[in-house]
Amino acid sequence: MASSSSSHDSMKVLEQCRVSPSPASITQHPASLPLTFFDILWLYTSPVERLFLYAFPHSTVVFTESYLPNLKSSLSLALHHFYPLAGRVRRSPDSADLYELHYEEGDSVSFTVAETDLDFLDLVGYHARDSSKLRSLAPRLPELDENRPLLAIQVTLFPDHGIGIGFTVHHVACDGFNLTHFYKSWASSCKSRGHDSLVQPAPSFDRSVIVDPCDLYSEFLGDMNRFTADNNPVLVPAAMESAPSNLVHATFTLAPDRIEGLKTLVRSKAISFNCSTFVASCAYLWTCIVKARGYQADIKAHFTFAVDWRKRLQPPTPDTYFGNCLGGCFAEAMVGDLVQENGVITAAEAIGRAIEGLKGGVSKCLSGFFPRALSLLVAECPPLSVAGSPKFKVYDVDFGWGRPLKVEVPSIKETGALSLSDSRDIQGGLEIGLVLPKHEMEALVTQFEESLAFF
């Protein structure tokens, strides 16, 4: 939450309130949604933050008098359709091992309005900038309380220059597909000046579509309970637990022609898997980061990413399903192989093989997830992970002020992940956000630009 007593004295809280879903949400849907095995994976992870930055050449007075009421009322309308986000995650009554999302009429979302004199043009840039400034634009949520809220929102004014809308959500509530659906529905309602403009189709809350024949829920919960008993309640890479103070946030871009060049190279040498845009782009970034960090050649590097299981389950889950439907996927390769001339091919093969392995089915692929994931947290070469997806089309979130100038994931400062999204200006391009110590970021910029010249 923004605060005038934070590390940035430029942040001033103008208003703190709560916004509830418009009436009658609970009469149409179940009050409690049981967590599935996909959800329980995220029970103790850190919240995810997403920040949208827009040009907004108006004063604070104009905003509070002419725009803020509509922003609140349209949020209430959007929450009507996504009512679990206004509730809490809690242990199910009379149960020691079952959890649920629970909403009661009157539950609400924390909504903060703040003003700052931070440099707006600096924050919407692609260059390396102070990561803590971006994080000051996202609200805070409690992480350890089992009966905790799921969503908080912060609107930050840069008077006469811009506006930021920051979301912080506990991943246990749902995945990025659902959240993007929520963002776009709120934005659509706001743009239409308060009409109930749900971006179709409506979310489905039917948890029976997630089948768990091998009881992965009990396996995951048992593994987590053993882990948290060791006083490690939040699953974040060990390298980020004592993060240095000189972290900078930068955005890299890949144009479509560069992506095609990477895919052509990989396909010319490796033909046993589908070299998608995701595989080629992540392979390139993985090799660049390993080189920039200067790891020893004789250790293993790890790359982890979330996989959408909606179409992979039997039977497939509807696209409208509200809740998590993601599972982790792991790739690894020796550092020495990744830093060689054709290291991107090695990286792509490792990621491609991991994706091919998903054909074994969800129970086989996710069983043993926690022991493997936790083992990577203490690896010599910390795992590189991915947050977001270009499929979300985050630059289409328009509240009536035009498309965002920049969309960021500030929480990657905590997780050490790279953020991946569509490009604002180039159809088919990608934007990649990273947070690194300043000297590593400088090395990565050089590595990224020099290597890309060959594609």
UniProtKB/TrEMBL annotation:
Annotated source species? Iris pallida (Sweet iris)
InterPro entries noted in UniProt: CAT-like_dom_sf, Plant_metabolite_acyltrans
List the Pfam families. Answer: Transferase
Which residues are the signal sequence here? none
Keyword check for Ribosomal protein, yes or no: no
Q: What is this protein called?
A: Coumaroyl-CoA:anthocyanidin 3-O-glucoside-6''-O-coumaroyltransferase 2
Which keywords, in A-to-Z order, does the entry hold?
A: Acyltransferase, Transferase
Keyword Acyltransferase attached: yes
Q: Which GO terms describe its molecular function?
A: acyltransferase activity, transferring groups other than amino-acyl groups
Which superkingdom is the protein from?
Eukaryota
